[in-house]
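Field reference: sequence -> structure
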Amino acid sequence: MKFKAQKESVNYLFTQVCKLRRNQSNLLLSASGLHAGQDVLLYYLDMHDGQTITALAEKMQVQYATISNMIDRMEAAGLLNKKKDEVDKRTSRVFLTGEGRQCVGKINDAWRILEAKTLEGFTSDEKIALTGLLSRILLNLKSQSV
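Structure field:
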């Protein structure tokens, strides 16, 4: 039997929500000169500066080559620096620059605006319930292979 993406199916709704959220996020972040995914990379570096490229690729769930190219572009833009690890010269670590740290503040502002718009009209109980449901979905998708 062929699966149809009906407007009331979870798959259809998730697809629509994700597309709209990504578009809104891109609009908010474009004012800072950031592109899709760069906000997440800066967020992870703000949480723990000096991570390896491999660790960042795992956290962002992308291929090493993808994150490496992103890092090169962001380094050229002055947002971060890539340095060889002092102990293991085969490993590179990534660090925020001052300009990168300023972008983190802009990212936080954009994410606050996006979250407020996303949850507009929700009660506190609904926000708690949604967070719990999304957390369960995340665990389901992380723990099971398709």
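Note: The chain has six helices and three strands.
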